[in-house]
Amino acid sequence: DGRNTQRSGQSIDLRLVTSYESVRRRNYYESYGLGVDVWTVPVALWGPEPPTHHISCIIVTPDQNTIVTGTPDGQICLWDLRTSQADTLRLLPKALIFGHPSPVTALAIANDKWEKASIVSAAQDGEICLWDSDDGTCIQYQSQIRGSHTDIQTFQMTSGLKRLWRVIVYGHYSEVFILDAATLEIVYNLQSKISPDWVSALCVTKSTHNEGNSVIALCANRMMKIWHLIDEPQEALYETEAKMLANEDANCVRFNQFTNRAMLFVYADCWQIYDLESYRLLYEMRATNGDLWIGGDFVDVNDVAIWTQSGATCIFRLPKKCLPDAESSKNISSEEEAITLHTLSRCTSEKISSKPVLNFSYGSRGSFHKLIVQGNAAGEIRIWKLNSFTDAKNYVLDHDVAPIISASLSDPWKDPKTKPNGILDNLVTLDGDKDESNPSISSTLFIADRGILICGCDNGDIYVADACVITLMQFLNYKQSSAVKPIIHAMKRHNRRVTCLLHPYSDVASYDPKLLVSGSSDFTVNLWNLETGAWLYTFAVHGGGITKLFCCPQSGSGRLANSICGISRDHAVSILSLTERKCILLAGKHTFPVNSIRWRLNEDFLVVSCTDGTIYVWQIETGCLDRCISGTAAAEILQVCDEATFVGIDATNNMISPSPLIGSSPNQSPNTPLASTASGPYLHDTSMTGSESLSSLSGYPLRITAVRANLYDSDIQILLFDTESLISHLLHFDKVPSDELEDSQDEEGIIFSTNSESGKKPATLLRQSQITYDSAQLELSCLHAWDLDPKLDEICIERLGLLHPNRPITFGILSKRRSLSLIVPGWEPYTPQLKANLSEGISDATLKDQSFVTYSHWMLSSSLTTQHMLAIISISNTLMEMNHTSFISEFEDDIDYSESNEEAEDREMKEVTRVSQIKAGWSQIATLHCVLLPDKLGKHNFKAPLLQVLARRWQHKCLEIREAAQALLLAELNRIGRDGRQQIIEVWAPHVPRNFDISQNSASTPVDGIATTPTIMVDSPSTPQLQSSSTAAVSSPRKAFLTQRGNHFRKMKSVPAGMANKPDRNLSLAVSNGNSLSQSLSSEFLDRPSSFGGIECGITTTKSLQRSISAYEFRRRQITAIVMMGVIGAEFSNELDASTTRRNNQGRDKAVLPENDVVMYTGKALQFLILQQNSVQFPGNSTVRRTAIDLIGRGFALWQPYLDVASVLLVLLDLSCESASKTSSSNPSVTSLDTSRTARHALSLIATSKPALLITTLSVQIGRNGPLLISLMQSSPPGSQPPPSATILFQSRAVVIHVMELLVEKASQEVVDLLVEVVNIILHCSDQIQLKSRNLPDSFPSLFKFSMVSFCSKSKRVAVGSQKGQVIVFDTKSVRSHALLAYSSAITALAFSADGRFVAIFSLSEARLSFWQIGSSTNIFGMIGNFTPKCIKMCKVNTSKVQESQAVVHKLVRIVWLNQKELVLLINGLEQRFSV
What we know:
The longest helix is centred in the middle third of the chain and has 37 residues, at about 900-935. The chain has 35 helices and 69 strands. With about 1500 residues, the chain is an alpha+beta fold.
């Protein structure tokens, strides 16, 4: 009891543990820690047997729609409580949460939000978690309180006009902690000065004289203590009163919420009523029937319910002296006794070995507003409805009142319609029972790169199967081919339960890939040939069942090469040689269970630590026990081992790393299982086995792991679909030629052999492609919303190759701490009207066959909808763009090569038509789930996606997921309408920061994961190598430029002393503890406020509320608010601007956002994120910066008044010209290329939205740095260091030219108005060497579509007419210019003569044509003082039939020289001749 452990990445704090099974349970939960992303899509195969569910605690949500139960095995179950039209109740298990590795000791409701309550759970190991009652996702957790919690309660505190929810926690420690119910941060620490001891029971009361709260606690030493809570939290708050009581430990203390005056104390042998004001005993009743009281509660003003250890509940009517007005009544008898009104039936099951748990729920749900719920160790829930007892005299005592409803978690397994399948059901036949074909699986091993699933069963059999085939057969209407065998091998040697499986080659490449090792409860370890299924050898050295097998380190002692290590239930550790077929070491003198193993290879020692704190040091070479040490010396030796280089293996878990967690987020406890914390060949990861078959790809599209509710239950197989990896694999194999896939085909199909010289041999390309396409087919078939559109379903089956489910599919959700929530089989939403609408037009036979709902996962929770929508939309878009677009063979029959040309063309046309129809089918699937699904299901049934989650994926590193998130977010914003978008603005606008500091780049080292400076978290790129010092180096031009511009943005207010730990509205950038926030932003459910139609509501960020939000959480919300306001401003600019105007006009919400200008501060925030200097904490290729770049481009017209346009453009130019070569030459990252593409796109959007501003800004920068640019292009270094802006312009010349080309094509009018500036920019950014070899019209032909631009190939000059009547003549060799004042109005057209001596200039406004003598280049630019260009002739032009318009100016006016003296002026098709 009370032992504290740190798992997977930390050394273990050893305390005495008396229960072996508690160690096994803890280590088992560690072993299934999933090293996968929270956006992996889990699908469960529950198996033929229901999971064990011993209920240890139970609560009911305020809306009485959900019942929550906890178990000693660490699971939490959500139950759906429904009311039918006949006013009867129905109870269904909805979700099972694998959340805690230790027993759940208490549950409580975190808030009273109607239909959106959160659940708080406490575990024996000290963890406290906050859960979503809809889907069971982990919202928040904390493990700062060390010790075993016995109970938690929630209450409300009043702070001004606000109600704040608090969680009070107590247990096997002397303090009482009060936490914030939203963030689980410690607000109060209640300590004792008088006889501190464990708290047995407590309650929170409200004073009748003031609005304060008091905590009344009964301690184990019979002391009653009282704390009065104050508004301002303190580090330590001591009791104000203390009183010694006569009774022993109290089991329960309750406060009368009906009168606010009385208190109920329940002891084992009696229960008492106390007056709250005077703490005077009012009434006492002792147990008379020998049963023990375990708890109770007030169910009415003068009625109490007391429950006993046997499960019975007695309802008593209190004497009148216990009423609030009893003191004023003189006729009350002091000897009046309580009256027994009601007795509820007790538990009679013989299987129950522990006391049941009961709870009272007081809601307002129709006639069922008072409920008593009971949960027992058999996993059954029973519910009673209480009547209002108004007349006790007329009541007839009934000692056996049955519950109105009862349900169990095993109920879905009893119904043939809802009974789930196992992974091997109906595929194998068990010996001795021909009718039974559903084996109970006890161990699971998945080889990912070959798609092989190995299952060990309770009867000792081991089956090797094709994972994709058997999952397709169990879920979907899959037509098995005769050539495909789902079961590859059936290996039978063990005679008892198979407990563990090991494929050594998956962990270490030096092992033989054909070997498989299995351990069993029959005390043996068997060695198998995985390729043939043959048994090779049996190791029978243990005296107990095998619990763990893992590979030995391959360095150091040569004897450990090709050896494995095993741990058994007799506390023995063995080292078994697979090549010599013998036991090298058997360490079997341990008196307690083995906790962990350390390898000291240099000293040839094996260090075994046990759960009692004793360590055993064994000599590997001799097999002798060197020493046995306990106490402080053992702890010191373990500490030395942890500090040294070693390899540690938990007794039943993965690798242990000696170093503390690196890169953990502030919300990641040391107990979080990690996929890998060590490097080299010693890594053992049960969730991701197999060699990397594709060096360019990471991860696998499909992985299979197993969980179980109890140590002795059957495995529940979990299919983990990694959408991002699946997309990358699909794109990879789409580029592989079909003949290359055929050449890689092996006759044996699945092979395990390898050449010793080549090391690891990946699976064949054909096998990898089969796994990829089968995974895609399986995931899409599971996620698709079947039965909503029959026509689309037909297309999916006949053209796309998707498979309709043949049974309900149970999905899951991964959330924080790698907790897993699984939908229980048989649960579906109650939607009779939707079923009636969808069943119209469908035959009765079809309805009879379709006995389950296939679209229920869209109506469970918003988080599940978000995950599934992103997955199916992104995969569908990927398949639509691929060449191999369908899961059906492209050619049904072989091609007849003797066919005629007409037949071949006809076949090709049919194939083209078929491909186009298939692509249209994928497009329809994406459209259904992105746009049409809410209308199909109905707005009341459909759970809208989480908008803040989609906003955080606005620039996801996977392009397909990014596009899906953007399309889905915009579709949802359009769906909710203008009013919904205004609600979003009201919710998220207060989180937009107001003050910015561009000079602050880092935060000090955080304590417990919370940054100690008021900074905002931003994410690093997903690739780990970008966080190293080499890859974090910034380009000097941008760094110098940003440093130079820093003072312009330095507006951050000073932070008062003592406020460092409090988040504020200042926006600066840092990463706490060096962690990449790309992982933090992947934890999508850090902030989960109540939602309404996909709108996150209930978020306010006043200064008082900031203290209740963690600094980390507050900064994440800042980033989310910036992105959300940026998206709305970019796509619905009028609404965001109108919201700001309305705020200013009405003058409201000044306490929340005094400035009332959302547009201004959003624009400043986006600018801040772009202009921030590159650093390790904030790399230039981060997702947050890339998002800001994209949003500032999309909404540039809205943000532009509040931006430093020149600085933004220069940074965008610098980012747009970056490439992967700038990061790391050895391992380039695609994130830099992605950032470059985003910056280019943003520049294009800016150019099209504000072309004049862009041209003017670039022209100013060119004017300042023109000579330096020419000098840099001519490879002649300037005399001093050039300014950063000149260097950036020089490096981004190609980008500038591209932007100018875009402007010429799409913004002709703006270019005409600033044509001189455009030509000046083009000449300064063009390659001078290229201009010398090629004429400007050849390099930039689109520029010369304007009639007011002319080029002389002989003199290499460009003449440009302006709107002010000037003509600027540029020399392309030296990029110098000379201005001619030709007219006072705009120049319409001009042209050089063939020899370049004359230029004709025409102005339509003045109707005149002038001839100017220019001369040679030397005359103008060499002897400019001696020669001036002059006008030699002026002619009047007849323009009476021509109207001045833009079309005329651009297209219909031209000057064509006929010879060196004559020209033709073309105006709207009319010719006029002129001569010099």
